[in-house]
Amino acid sequence: MPPEALLAVCVLVPLGLCVPTGDQHRRGVDWLSRYGYMPPLDPHNGRLQTGEGIQMALRQMQRFAGIEETGELDGATMALMETPRCSLPDITGAEDLLRKRRRRGMRERRQALSLRWNKTELTWSIHSYPSPVLSPTLQQTHLVELILTYAFKVWSDAAPLGFRLLREGREGDVRVLFAHSFHDDGYPFDGRGGTLAHAFFPGATEMAGDAHFDDGESWSYGYGDDQGTTDLFTVAVHEFGHALGLSHSSSRVSIMRPYYQGTVGDILNFTLPVDDRLAIQTIYGKRAKSDQPSTLSPTPPHHIPSPPPPRGTLHPVPALPDRCEGNYDAIGNIRGEVFFFKGPFFWRVQGGSLMSTNPALIHNFWVGLPSAVDRVDSVYERSDGHIVFFIGDRYWVFKDTSSLPGYPRPIAEWGMATTAGRPLTRVEAAFVWAHNRKTYLFGKGQFWRFSEAGQERKLDAGYPKMASLWTGVPYEPDDIISWVDGDSYFFKDSSYWVLKRGGLGREDIAPKSVAADWMRCDVSEASPTQRTEILNRSRGDCSCSRSNAGIALHRGGMAAEDALRVEYNISLLSLYK
Prior knowledge:
Shape: globular
Number of strands: 28
CATH topology of the largest domain: Hemopexin
Number of domains: 3
Helix content: 10-25%
Distance between the termini: 42 Å
Largest sheet: 7 strands, mixed
Structural class: alpha+beta
Strand content: 15-25%
Low-confidence stretches: 1-18, 43-47, 93-109, 309-317, 525-577
Number of helices: 12
């Protein structure tokens, strides 16, 4: 990974209980790859994970974390993997790792990147503040500035560094912002309970030194996770350490330990642990006793307001759905990630890995949808990069995660009517087919095709057609996604079907398990009744066959098999155009 791309992101990585199942083992290997302990799986280059390699990686991870070095995915290891942490890799490369293994006399191991500012007087600026709704104890902007000022002061007390806050829209060397989801740096936040913050290391890039905090979190000061909130001061000290060039330390007491450890307590009197003080002094030198830090702005008062008394969980969250049950309301391929929506929540799958087993709230991530939204009917990403949501008889268009002005609007604008002449009032599935870049909307067992160019949209002639023309897959899918290689994925209940490279007319498509392949669920752990139900669903109880499709056509007012053959042969050509 090049230095300019290095990013530190605090993220929850839940992994399960004490006895590793097949699902937990897979996620454990993903975790080891993500944080640099082993190379990622690459079957195209013949790079596969071996039992010996996994055991060695586990020993390295356990050694760095300071837990018993067993080489096994035991309870202590899995518990640590569940802990919130930064996503900056702990191990930066195999050669560096070998050097550290030889340096057994080193008191604590730290991954050094040799990145630093070429000056010691730095400026910083705040470009947005925490949401007053999610972070009610930090409604005063002055209080946020004070907390961040003290976080910088922790570092300037140990090294000859000075930090000055710029106001009136001026940009500092370190730019601080609180942002939702996609925010133009390629590292989207995921709302409450997942990614906490990230910071860029010093360098020549535009974002060097910047620190971003997830505005979907509930931030506080003085108390933390036990009250359902995250301590801003503790996270800020950690992220500012990255912004100054520090990476992670294996010291249990280090503020730069990869794992979020909750509030540090007294903001006014907190000082760096020895490991962190020596690390920052290695980069910038020691501060002379007679050398006072540059005047801080705002000037810290003698005391900071006491945090309000804990009020329990500040924002009640609806009961979390079981990701392994299937029956998702909508599935969308957005920015190369797959989003699974169910009720007021969603999960994200990135690069084939489920980012968190705990879902995030939809309205915390997609700003502009109703706060009381309890389901999404369908969603897809347009060819111009805008994202379209269908909920009931209305639709929204988003740029990244913010709704465009003028929405929602009625789906009646799309001009869709069934073969019986009735207007379509709910879109059940939508996707852009990579084979022809056309947009397809499904509902009532039928589908419509649109030609879209930016804001322009035109319903193609000859539609709707019966959804049963897509043989071998459900004709009333929960949703559909398509990849750039042309493969399309049809989802129904707890199963999915892969239509290869734009192919049609196949009846031998075997259903697969969403729970096992996407949600990292171990089907073997289900009860006999649950297992039978899951397997029965995966065998295709979904009206996917041509005979069932013929029945659907008959209900639409056509003779079954004969009409299907004629309609299929004619429409197969028009689908590809």
